[in-house]
């Protein structure tokens, strides 16, 4: 794991962990990295304070956590909102909106009646439960503050 100091186009600074430098490049190019404050995908690396060796090879870093955040660590409200907003934007730009025909289209794909593709749309609670009972994968997108639909 490698930690990078990042900065968005709006000037917000934050840290993120990646499996490699190439992983950062791939995610950045795909606009998968989002600013936790504003949700901007315009993100770049900024210089970091290097670890300094003292005496018996004990690295000392300045204001830098030594471990990545634990899996499932809670995010702040702003980070959660920015993440969900970015996720919704990514899904909507990479999937077909099937509207209220979501359950029907998901079933057709699941049972091989039509070609598989990324879709999103609307389903009632009963339709969502039925999809789950049939083993058809589907996840809800939560409404966010400011959604008018």
Architecture overview:
The protein is elongated and about 60 Å long. A 3-stranded antiparallel beta sheet has the order 2-1-3. The chain has a two-stranded antiparallel sheet with strand order 4-5. The chain is 30% helix and 19% strand. α3 (102-110) links the parallel β6 and β7 (119-121). It is α+β, with helices and mostly antiparallel strands and 149 residues long.
How far apart, in Å, are the first and last alpha carbons? 40 Å
Chain-averaged pLDDT: 78
Overall geometry comes to elongated
- Taking Cα atoms only, what radius of gyration do you get, to the nearest Å? 20 Å
Biggest beta sheet summary: 3 strands, antiparallel
Order of helices and strands: EEHEEEHEHEH
Helical coverage, percent range: 25-40%
Give the low-confidence spans: 58-74
The count of helical stretches stands at 4
E-strand count: 7
Beta-strand portion reads: 15-25%
The SS-based structural class is: alpha+beta
Across the major sheet, the strand order is 2-1-3
């Amino acid at each position: 794991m490698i930690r990078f100091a990042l900065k968005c186009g709006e000037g917000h600074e934050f840290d993120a962990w990646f499996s490699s430098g190439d992983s950062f490049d791939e995610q950045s190019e795909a606009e998968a990295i989002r600013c936790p404050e504003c949700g901007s995908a315009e993100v770049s690396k900024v210089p970091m304070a290097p670890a300094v060796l003292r005496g018996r090879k004990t690295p000392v870093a300045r204001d830098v956590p030594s471990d990545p955040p634990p899996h499932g660590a809670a995010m702040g409200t702003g980070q959660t909102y920015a993440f969900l907003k970015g996720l919704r934007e990514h899904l909507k730009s990479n999937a077909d909106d099937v509207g209220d025909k979501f359950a029907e289209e998901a079933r057709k794909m699941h049972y091989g009646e039509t070609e598989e593709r990324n879709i999103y749309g609307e389903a009632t609670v009963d339709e969502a439960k039925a999809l789950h009972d049939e083993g058809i994968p589907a996840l809800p997108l939560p409404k966010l503050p400011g959604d008018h639909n």
